[in-house]
Amino acid sequence: GVQTCALPILKPAGVNRTMAVLKAALNLAADRDDRITNRDIWYRELANLPDVSEPRNVVVSDSIVQRIVAAAYAVDERVGLLFETAAVTGARFSQLARLRVSDLDDREVAPRLLVPTARGQKKHRNRPVPIAESSAKRLRTLSEHRDESSALLLKPDGTAWKRSEQTRPFKASVYRAEVRPEEIAPHTIDE
């Protein structure tokens, strides 16, 4: 008999991302093979789904942010510090995961973090983001006696955060704070 495979059901944004990869593969094939002369077909037939690229602009109130951060500290001090740093800097978790101990500049009157720019930007440099003295003190305390090139923010087990590893602790913190998780995304904790 014929074998079938179950394909995952994608959300519209996932369909558009998949189509972008497919179009890139088709363009690469056309670049390498002069016999392919009908590029306009996939531009026309593989158009993005309409009204999908609208970003969710979620503004989270200060009180909800404070509840989530407090709940994160109740989960673990290092989880709390991760979410507090996200809240005070507005940085995405991919940027926070790239912070090094040397990026904490707390020697001056106004402490700050040198937050890496987004990976998609052409110039890779850090932007200074002011932080509260209390946040700087917690960061310094947890990073004492560590090499300047080591990760600033660590997971509860003492290892560096990796991509998407904040999702479960974030959901646990949101649940503990009694906030509905589908109403917010982790990178919106900056208001």
Topology:
Layout: H1 12-32, H2 39-45, H3 62-75, H4 77-89, H5 93-97, E1 104-105, E2 112-116, E3 126-130, H6 133-143, H7 167-176
Antiparallel strand pairs: 1-2, 2-3
Helix pairs in contact: 3-4, 3-7, 4-6
- Classify the beta-strand content into a percent band: 5-15%
Query: Mind telling me the C-alpha Rg?
Result: 21 Å
Sheet with most strands: 3 strands, antiparallel
> Segments where pLDDT lies below 50 for 5+ residues?
none
Helix content: 40-55%
What is the first-to-last residue Cα distance? 57 Å
Number of helices: 7
* Principal-axes shape call: elongated
Q: What is the number of E strands?
A: 3
Strand order of the largest sheet: 1-2-3
Based on helices, strands and strand pairing, what is the structural class? mainly alpha
Mean pLDDT across residues = 82
Q: What are the secondary-structure elements, in order, as H or E?
A: HHHHHEEEHH
Task: Give a brief rundown of this model.
The protein is built from 7 helices and 3 strands.
Provide an overview of this structure.
By secondary structure, the protein is mainly alpha-helical. The protein has helices spanning 12-32, 39-45, 62-75, 77-89, 93-97, 133-143, 167-176; strands at residues 104-105, 112-116, 126-130. Strands 1-2-3 form a three-stranded antiparallel sheet, with helices on one face. A hairpin with a 6-residue loop joins strand 1 (104-105) and strand 2 (112-116). The termini are far apart. The model has no long low-confidence stretch (mean pLDDT 82).
